[in-house]
Description:
Elements (H helix, E strand, L loop, with lengths): L17 H12 L3 H8 L8 H11 L9 H4 L5 H12 L11 H30 L2 H21 L3 H10 L10
Helix pairs in contact: 1-3, 1-6, 2-6, 3-5, 6-7
Amino acid sequence: PATPRNIDPAPSREALAPEERELLFLMIHHPPCIDLVAQYIREEHLANPEARILYTRLLAHPGEEDWQLMPELSEDPEPVKQLAAELLNQDRSLDTSEVPPSQSAQALILAIRRKRMNERLNELKILRGEATGGRHQDLDLEVKTLIHDILALKSGWDHARDILDLHHPTDSFSPQ
């Protein structure tokens, strides 16, 4: 029987990556994208702690017409409020892209998930280098599979969705 691939560890970095900023901006200014994003990104996929908090607040109210973001953040740390204010007030006229928001969301999902998968690949390579016997063989297979999957994410959304489903965001990472 096939087992789900648990390869998306929580990242350790705290800096706000451009793709995380863009994803949150998209979710704030194009709420219909929230459902798509929620299918493939969990908060642990975001490296920045403030982005994680803001992300969970946005997921809690997808598509609600009367919902206001800033009051929802009243109990959250000041950096979260600052990030939300920046994104809310960011000049939308600078977005001259002709790409529909859903396509932008797909590209950002792929970028974020590929980044996490590459981080996991580096961890596996280190573990493989330290392992012996059957454990080394198991890790070698995991490395090769993950390399294949990362390449599939580069081949476009339609091919990548199958891989993203295998590495489902609801799976929990548990090292062996």
